[in-house]
Amino acid sequence: MSEKLRLGGxxxxxxxxxxxxxxxxxxxxxxxxELKVAAERKQLISSNIRNPLLRGxxxxxxxxxxxxxxxxxxxxxxxxxxxxxVIAGMAASTVVMTRIRRSRLGDASKELVGAILSFxxxxxxxxxxxxxxxxxxxxxxxGTYEHGEPRAKEHERCGSHLVGPLVAATVVGNTLAAKxxxxxxxxxxxxxxLGAVAAATETFGWMQRHPDxxxxxxxxxxxxxxxxxxxxxxxxxxxxxxAEAALNxxxxxxxxxxxxxxx
Length: 263
Prior knowledge:
The protein has 263 residues and is an alpha+beta fold. 60% of the residues lie in helices and 9% in strands. It is built from ten helices and four strands. It has helices at residues 52-65, 67-73, 84-101, 107-117, 120-126, 131-147, 163-177, 185-209, 214-231, 237-262; strands spanning 8-11, 15-19, 23-29, 35-41. The longest helix is centred in the last third of the chain and has 26 residues, at 237-262.
């Protein structure tokens, strides 16, 4: 049996996006019930980046870099962060965090609250109508493909598993940055943010390579609970059909790329 490709995905309010090493595909259900699919090669590939400080952020950037192109070729796609409630949540989180940083709380407490607040927009997005079910559909079709057997709506490589490592790394980084001289504080915070993403993604990779390690289990627990209780719902047959269409379109491009490379 040929080796399975490593796939990622994103749930939309009306569909599913699946991306592989070189390609992406998106399938949506339009307001009138039509199933529409778009698929293209990626313009940005991060797999050649080996620097541990850069490869994590590069992978995350690769996963969203084609979203503007997606909106052009498939304007019916409803991205999770386009909803007004989510945008309002992002603005409110920023305002609240600004006030917290001016409070008398200790530096570590401020950063812990800030790190938790930063996930508010994502939670609001997941609470949107249809999104949690499409998130479950995304996990089911990708997990079933990867494992060769029917899988549940939770996936061990979901981005929610970054929550634990990212909160911890952000708190540590920003607490240290807060001790920098005032004129260097903003650059220090930017460096801390980059370092937190790098540390979290490297930790996430380690968790995937050592799934039976007790520490890996502990770090994965917040993400699993977020998936199980908030982030996913059981999809309908129609939603699974959309997710399978996205998966098949992505695999078709990826397999064509492999065949071309083999010639």
